Amino acid sequence: MRCVIAHFSFDLVKEEVEKSMSGIKPEPVTDASVTIGRKQYPVKQVGAIITRQDRRDFTTTEIVRALTRLGFTCHPAPAPTL
Fold first, then answer.
1. First to last CA, the chain
2. Short-list 63, 66, 28, 70, CA closest to 47
3. Which of 8, 24, 32, 80 sees the fewest Cβ atoms within 10 Å?
4. What is the count of structural domains for the chain?
C-alpha cells in the first residue's frame, strides 16, 4: 500500500511491518499505540522503524492512518492518571 508520511511516499506491506518489528522490544506506551503480533508498541516507535525517519518528522495521525489501512489495530492514548 502506498502512503505519504512526512511528505515522503512509502510502499508499506503488513508482513514487512511485522517482520521489521519482530525482535524489537516495545517502549512504554504514553501516547497512541498499535498491536503488532502479541505486543503493543507506541505508534511513534513503529513509525521511526518502518520509515527510518526521526520521530519529530511525522505525526502520530499519519502513522495511525497508514497502520490502520494495513489492517493493524491502533489504540488511543491512555487516559492520564491522577
1. 41
2. 63
3. 80
4. 1
